């Protein structure tokens, strides 16, 4: 009978730990791809659907989950919706009430937030209770009997109500860069921003300070379209001009196709987007590049999963 003796190797625990870290990293990458935050096209699609249905309506009642991230919904009661616009990934409803003047209801969808407008009644005690609607975080009843609901499975979304234009308590909104379709966003401005930073180009795009509304999906797409390496720290005005065009084109594609649904995103009518069928680079790691045929690769850049072509997007 052969007896197998255990191997007494002091390095084995470290090897096992390394394997665990690798497995965790793989899970994190998979999670990053499956839980994409709604970006400009998704938020703008929802805004365009809700604006004609909300503008002119008065909020006669409201309720929320007990979390402080959602209770500001209660501050909107009595407000008439004057306008619904978007800034970056934020939805902003301009409200007016005689006793409060003009205020703004600000909604960020987070990863899994969604808005729906219907005629179903909601009671205050139902919000957040198991068996009622586990993922309902806030609601607003309108003067026409309809209810706007904010559902959020993972509770990464948030709601604020502020005096009109006062974003001092919301630095992520206050410090947003220009809108990508605004004339103030051009290659010279983008190149200057990159020169002032030592961060990777993709990280700069995701910071929201160089340009508002671009997230992981559309950053990968735009950088691939412009044939620029996402990890570069330098950007000439010429290449910046090319990138500005690519950012606008990929965002426009998202708008034209109702947004990108990878897992959770649906529009205000509960419909999924179709832009995921149009993606040229994002999420296509190990598939051939549609421009040169090389195998697309994936790497982590500043904790964000990134897909790029090693040939087309060489440094």
- Overall number of strands: 10
Strand order of the largest sheet: 1-6-7-5
Quickly count the helices.
7
Compute the average pLDDT. 89
Helical content, roughly?
25-40%
Relative strand content: 15-25%
Q: Uncertain runs with pLDDT below 50, 5 residues or more?
A: 1-7, 19-34
Profile the largest sheet.
Answer: 4 strands, antiparallel
Q: How does the overall form come out from the CA principal axes?
A: elongated
The termini sit apart by 60 Å
Radius of gyration: 23 Å
What's the order of the H and E elements? Answer: HHEEEEEEEEHHHHHEE
Structural class: alpha+beta
Protein described:
This protein has a 4-stranded antiparallel β-sheet with strand order 1-6-7-5, with helices on one face. It has a 4-stranded antiparallel β-sheet with strand order 2-3-4-8, covered by helices on one side. A two-stranded antiparallel ribbon has the order 9-10. Helix 4 crosses helix 7 and helix 6 crosses helix 7. The N terminus is likely disordered. Helix content is 28%, strand content 21%. It has 7 helices and 10 strands. It is an alpha+beta fold and 315 residues long.
């Amino acid at each position: 009978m052969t007896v197998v003796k255990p191997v007494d190797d002091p390095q084995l625990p470290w090897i096992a730990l390394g394997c665990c870290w690798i497995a965790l990293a793989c899970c994190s990458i998979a999670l990053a791809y499956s839980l994409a935050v709604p970006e400009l096209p998704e938020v703008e699609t929802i805004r365009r659907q809700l604006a004609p249905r909300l503008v002119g309506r008065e909020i006669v009642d409201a309720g929320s989950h007990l979390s402080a991230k959602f209770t500001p919904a209660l501050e909107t009661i009595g407000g008439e919706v004057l306008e619904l616009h978007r800034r970056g990934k934020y939805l902003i409803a301009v409200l007016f009430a005689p006793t409060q003047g003009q205020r703004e209801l600000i909604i960020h969808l987070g990863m899994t937030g969604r808005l729906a407008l219907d005629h179903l009644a909601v009671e205050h005690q139902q919000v957040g209770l198991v068996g009622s609607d586990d993922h309902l975080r806030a609601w607003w009843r309108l003067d026409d009997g309809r209810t706007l609901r904010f559902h959020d499975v993972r509770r990464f979304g948030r709601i604020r109500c502020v005096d009109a234009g006062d974003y001092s308590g919301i630095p992520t909104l206050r410090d947003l860069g220009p809108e990508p379709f605004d004339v103030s966003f051009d290659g010279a401005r983008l190149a200057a921003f990159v020169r002032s930073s030592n961060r990777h180009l993709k990280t700069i795009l995701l910071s929201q300070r160089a340009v508002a509304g671009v997230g992981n999906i559309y950053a990968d797409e735009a950088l691939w379209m412009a044939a620029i390496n996402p990890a570069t720290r330098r950007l000439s005005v010429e290449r910046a001009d090319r990138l500005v065009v690519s950012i606008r084109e990929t965002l426009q594609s998202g708008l034209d196709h109702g947004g990108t649904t990878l897992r959770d995103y649906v529009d205000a009518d509960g419909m999924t987007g179709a832009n995921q069928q149009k993606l040229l680079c994002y999420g296509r790691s190990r598939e051939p590049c549609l421009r040169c045929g090389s195998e697309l690769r994936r790497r982590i850049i500043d904790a964000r999963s990134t897909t790029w072509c090693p040939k087309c997007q060489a440094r």
